[in-house]
Amino acid sequence: METKEKVQIDWKVVFKLGFILLLISGVAACCLALTNYVTAGTIEEMNIKANTVARQEVLPEATDFEEVPAEDVVKVATEIGMEKPEELLEIYAGKNGGEVVGYTVKTGPGSGFSGEVQVLTGISTDGIITGITIIKHNETPGLGALATGEWNDQFTGKSATEELIVVKGTAKEDSNEIQAITGSTITSKAVTAGVNISIEVYQIMSK
Fold it and tell me: For residues 46 and 6, what is the distance between their CA atoms, to the nearest angstrom?
């Protein structure tokens, strides 16, 4: 009858290896924390610059921007009757020579095909949409992602006195119609919803 050999565990080796792994994990965590601490300020500064550039793109006449306080943004969202006030992310007054020349409004409707679509809209004081840009989205590349290209140029020049509507066919000239992206009507409506929120904000801010 064969006897099974007992496996001898060298607990000293086990504890030594465990200690080494713990030490490596601790050092890695410290390095990550240090990297995050060192780069946090730089990343924040880059985000601020990127957002400033985006505001200037959608409201070219403005040379500097003044942020509307968060509590006032909440009041505006309430005044226009938003079901989800958190979708109104920010409002900036665009200025040139100390005079307000328009507003930029960032919205984040969660009605896109893949969730939130953040839209930045510029509207001049004379009630004209001066441009829009998509800040963030998770839409399907090649379909919803087209909203970041030439498609959004059709918003420029539209009146901010009435709601924009999405149509599947060709949009009529000098109308409030926006032609949907082929095969991506949901994304088209999400972007337009963001712009329509901005129109309502403008109408409140310009009173």
Answer: 62
Residue 12 pLDDT class (50, 70, 90 cuts): confident
Residue at token pair 């780069």: 39
pTM of the model: 0.77
Q: Report the relative pairing of strands 177-179 and 165-167 from DSSP bridges.
A: parallel
CA–CA gap between residue 196 and residue 106 (Å, rounded): 11
What is the reported pLDDT for 171?
Answer: 93
Residue/partner pairs of 144-153 with CB below 8 Å, 24 or more apart: 144/112, 144/113, 144/114, 144/181, 144/184, 144/186, 144/187, 146/181, 146/184, 146/187, 147/117, 147/181, 147/184, 147/187, 147/188, 147/191, 151/181, 152/191
Cα–Cα dist 171/168, whole Å: 8
Instruction: Report pLDDT digits (tens) over 19-37.
Output: 888 888 888 888 787 777 7
Helix, strand, coil abundance in the chain, percent, nearest 5: 45, 25, 30
